[in-house]
């Protein structure tokens, strides 16, 4: 007999979606196991944004004060600099929530925070270095997952498996769920450059002829996201490091004198962007949430928010059903029904921004302010609309219906 473990709900993936769902279910008394293939949460290309809607949830949970004690920056406005003209795109000061800002902190701190909360709950078990390798099928339904952990193979049996294993979800592929690719036209180069104490605190976005660059403040360094055409890394590389460093400096003059830190291509990671979604998020015994159900583009930095909102809706809908056994397919479909409209609407906006703003900039047309930015610059009240969409999303979720 191989090793076996039985639980009510097995959540695969310890990202924002999986950790939030695991903690919320355990808080409702549902025995839950979260499997995470890595030994820790220390991966640096996941986005650092905790949105006002998530901060509101932390407040509903009574955890906000503790959370805000973690070192973080607050973003009350988002601005971009396009060909030397600075425009405020979003102003969070009018949102109907307690925290009218985005908290910027490394995502591993947020996930560690959730893991610490989970550790206080008897129904919560987090198993790290535990990789789900396949589904366990019984009588046509998903009955658990096969896992490989530090001690070898393990079978986890569960009334429900939730795939929160990200945009390359192995479980959604194993379940044969159909993915619709919406076509991302960009990739991101991800690297660190030194930050000086005299630098601005805020997130900085720059667009200049042919290039887009976002700088995230991580204390003593800038985490830089340089947007390139989809599949364009080989061309950037062939042009050479010197050319690349010059392009960074031309896009963000603030970086002058610091790009020397990039002395080989190993310091530059290529992050492949995808935008897709499942047609069906579930089959008997299995539900997909977060990027596993809908990979989000980094545009607007809303993927974490959507992943968390999925988790909150799923916990609210599933917990009562899980108390008495395996949720039926109609209950699983209710989660998709609840979350698919905000997902589709957000992805539509991301594709629109990609086609109308980012693509023209990457094609070298960054000299003129695109119309939406001209309007935002002229009518400050309009900045409340992007603030609402970025900060709250189309359908913010709460712990109670
Ligand atoms: C370049 C880039 C920058 C981004 N920046 C932002 C941003 O600033 N703000 C924002 O809101 N969003 C951003 N996003 C989007 C955001 O990263 C995702 O939407 C979000 O992380 C989705 O959360 P998730 O929990 O669904 O999946 P993930 O965060 O991908 O987590 C999935 C987890 O599952 C684990 N896992 C995978 N397979 C297995 C397995 N078989 N067994 C066990 N564990 C497994 C992984 O190790 C991982 O921990 C960005 C995306 C990209 C590509």
UniProtKB/TrEMBL annotation:
Q: Which Pfam families does the protein's record reference? A: FAD_binding_3 (PF01494)
Species per Swiss-Prot/TrEMBL record? Plastoroseomonas hellenica
Q: Which NCBIfam families match?
A: PRK06185.1-1, PRK06185.1-3
- Stated name of the protein: FAD-dependent oxidoreductase
Q: Which InterPro entries match?
A: FAD-bd, FAD/NAD-bd_sf, PheA/TfdB_FAD_monoxygenase
Domain FAD-binding, by residue range, is 7-340
**Keywords on record:** Oxidoreductase
Q: Which Gene3D superfamilies match?
A: FAD/NAD(P)-binding domain
Q: Does Metal-binding appear among the keywords? A: no
């Amino acid at each position: 007999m191989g090793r076996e473990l039985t639980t009510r709900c097995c959540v695969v993936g310890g990202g924002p979606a999986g950790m939030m769902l695991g903690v919320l279910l355990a808080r409702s008394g549902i025995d839950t196991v979260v499997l995470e293939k890595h030994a820790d949460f220390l991966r640096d290309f996941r986005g650092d944004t905790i949105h006002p809607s998530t901060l509101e949830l932390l407040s509903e949970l009574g955890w906000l004060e503790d959370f805000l004690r973690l070192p973080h920056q607050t973003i009350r406005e988002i601005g971009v600099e396009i060909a030397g003209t600075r425009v405020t795109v979003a102003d969070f000061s009018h949102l109907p929530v307690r925290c009218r800002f985005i908290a910027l902190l490394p995502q591993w701190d947020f996930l560690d925070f959730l893991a610490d909360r989970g550790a206080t709950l008897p129904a919560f078990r987090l198993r790290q270095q535990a990789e789900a390798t396949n589904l366990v099928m019984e009588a046509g339904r998903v009955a658990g997952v096969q896992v490989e952990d530090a001690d070898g193979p393990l079978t986890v049996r569960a009334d429900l498996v939730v795939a929160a294993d990200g945009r390359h979800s192995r479980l959604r592929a194993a379940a044969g769920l159909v993915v619709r690719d919406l076509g991302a036209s960009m990739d991101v180069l991800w690297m660190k450059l030194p930050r000086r104490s005299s630098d601005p605190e805020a997130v900085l976005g720059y667009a200049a002829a042919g290039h887009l660059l976002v700088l995230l403040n991580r204390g003593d360094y800038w985490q830089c996201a340089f947007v390139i055409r989809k599949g364009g890394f080989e061309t950037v590389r062939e042009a050479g490091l010197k050319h690349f460093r010059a392009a960074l400096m031309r896009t963000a003059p603030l970086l002058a004198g610091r790009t020397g830190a990039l002395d080989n291509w190993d310091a530059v990671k290529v992050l492949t962007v995808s935008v897709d979604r499942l047609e069906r998020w579930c089959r008997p015994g299995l539900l997909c949430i977060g990027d596993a159900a809908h990979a989000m583009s980094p545009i607007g930095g809303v993927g974490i928010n959507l992943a968390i909102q999925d988790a909150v809706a799923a916990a609210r809908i599933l917990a009562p059903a899980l108390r008495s056994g395996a949720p039926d397919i109609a209950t699983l479909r209710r989660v998709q029904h609840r979350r698919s409209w905000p997902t589709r609407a957000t992805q539509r906006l991301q594709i629109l921004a990609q086609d109308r703003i980012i693509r023209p900039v990457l094609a070298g047309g960054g000299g003129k302010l695109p119309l939406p930015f001209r309007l935002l610059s002229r009518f400050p009240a309009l900045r409340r609309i992007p603030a609402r969409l970025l900060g709250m999303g189309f359908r913010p979720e709460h712990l109670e219906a």
